[in-house]
Amino acid sequence: METFSSLADGFAIALTWQNLLLALLGCFLGTIMGALPGLGPSNGVAILIPLAFTLGLGATPSLILLTSVYYGAMYGGRISSILLNIPGDEPAMMTCLDGHPMAKKGLAGEALSLSGIASFVGAFLATWGLIFLAPQLVKIALLFGPAEYFALFALAFMTLGGVSSTNQAKSAFAAALGLGLATIGVDTQTGVPRFTFGEVHLYDGLDFLVAIVGLFALSEVFIFLERRHGGSDAEGRQLKIGRLYPPMSMVKQCTPTMLRTSFLGFLAGVLPGAGASLGSFISYSMEKRLVDKENTFGTGDPRGVAAPEAGNNAAAGGALVPMLALGVPGSGTTAVLLAVLLALNITPGPLLFTQNPDVVWGLIAALFIANFMLLAMNIPMVGLFTRVLMVPSRILMPIVAMVSFVGIYGISGSSFDLVVMIGFGVMGWVLRKLDVPLVPIILGTLLGNSMENNLRRAVTIDNGNWWTLVDSPLAIALWSIAIIGFVLPLIVGARVKAKMHQRRDEEGAISD
Amino acid sequence: MSDRIFGVVGLLLAIGFAFSALAIEESFLSDAVGPKAFPMIIAAILGLSSIVIAVRPDAEPEWPALGRLVEVGAAVVVMIFYAELLPVVGFVIATAFAAAYLAWRLGSGPIESVIVGIGTSLGIYVIFHLVLGLSLARGPLGF
């Protein structure tokens, strides 16, 4: 019952005019960003962070804005999948398979509204899952000492590699690169400068916001420049929607599918390293195996639309669980959300629930509110968002680039940071060409310092004995999961990943 | 081939990183681990993964033609100019030029590029500076 009173407090925080407006704005922007191919949840949130930060929003309002963007992008991704057969963002990839055939049959409106409902069901159930699971995870996390935390961070990196790239070596490289970047600056424990090469600007370390915006947003601009893809994907196509509400029989037919895949997607989201893309992928695969008796999946089966949409939205909610409870994000976008918390000087993890319950419960309440807003936006008003697809990228991309610059300049007011951001943009572009995942880099720059601090604390407490890292059963368990998570994909994962990667190009590097 | 080069570059990076880690001056007040150990672990992972990448390369990525590379390079140069000139000429002017350039290179016509440039610049100025009160770079003209 304690949970419900906390939730009620959360609603009291979320139900202010400012927060409601921010949620509305976030849902709207998020849906647009999700719908536009090229802008996904992670780069959408990345562009907006510096803004939320420089506008002086507090922790709860910033988080409400940005998680609304996150949820919104998960809804929006399906629009271009269904209408254009181009996933608006990574997790919406599987929605193309049945969504576009439905649209071809003249059922575009039904597909859009059904997937809207599926998204709602997935996200709604996942938010309940978050409420009940996160406090349990916190109880476990309170038993963690520095050694266990170090193992947990290692686990996050090792399992992240398992799903984010086809090549484990490249994931490991990305993680090490990120961690290496985090060590730049004055060492927090002894005060000696490291890797600064005498450059005063580097003494504070690299600002991870600069890295995130450069890697995610600017590299996208370079990709568009390279392909000279300036048009709109919707050009010359008819975006006819038709009726806006699905027939009841269709909803009824899909209900069991939605419930099953919400559960599955939520689990996929909670697992470290897996994100919404994996959630939608396994949801679709499982439903296909389970209910596709007449082989209609892939030809416009409504269940094939409901399954991945419920799955990816549920996974989005699930991915918030480890981020809030442990401070270890499980996906690209939650890594970016973690950056928000760190930028606001809030340390996520078990103590967040006791020290800043207003942030946690306000956020959870806002998620419920945002979900209803998104349902309202995405069913009756879906026509509005289909028009956004007509905006050609030769107009959109300059705006994206300039907003990124404004955000970063707003934080620091220094040209040096802008140049560093451009450097990260180029690096992101090259690494995406080489199929090196970017998410471990971000995670490395974010978690590097606390990973090192926990390592040094653990070893120092035990008088320099390094074996202390594998001294407790909990630490050993975490290390075992980490090793299994790293090795298992090498053996069985190749097949699954090859399937997942079939339908994408460099987008994969910022997979969520 | 790309992956082999990438692996070698990564390995050199790891070696460089390890050397500069060894060169870190230790303070007389140090904990049991010191500031060098963690970077050395990272250098090891970086080096090992680079070797694996070089030895077992993936399929060759599709590199753009030289012209496209020049395109990206030119955009980088323009952006660096933008970053450096921002405090000198002010936000509105610098942004209008940079946005117009990007729009032009992404395939807009000359008139459309100018409109996109000025529109983006003024739009951001109005929304972020006038409405939301974000401080943008101030040029000699005050905007």
TrEMBL record, chain A:
Transmembrane segments: 20-39, 45-71, 111-134, 140-160, 172-188, 208-225, 263-284, 335-353, 359-385, 397-430, 474-494
Superkingdom of source: Bacteria
Keyword Zinc-finger: no
Alphabetically ordered keywords of this record: Membrane, Transmembrane, Transmembrane helix
Residue runs in coiled coils: none
Sequence ranges assigned to domain DUF112 in this UniProt record: 20-443
InterPro entries reported for this sequence: DUF112_TM (IPR002823)
UniProt name for this protein: Putative tricarboxylic transport membrane protein
Gene source species: Ruegeria halocynthiae
UniProtKB/TrEMBL annotation, chain B:
Transmembrane segments: 33-53, 88-107, 114-137
DUF1468 domain segment(s): 5-136
Domain of life of the native organism: Bacteria
Keywords: Membrane, Transmembrane, Transmembrane helix
Cell membrane among keywords: no
Matches recorded under InterPro entries: DUF1468 (IPR009936)
Name of the protein in question: Putative tricarboxylic transport membrane protein
UniProt organism field: Ruegeria halocynthiae
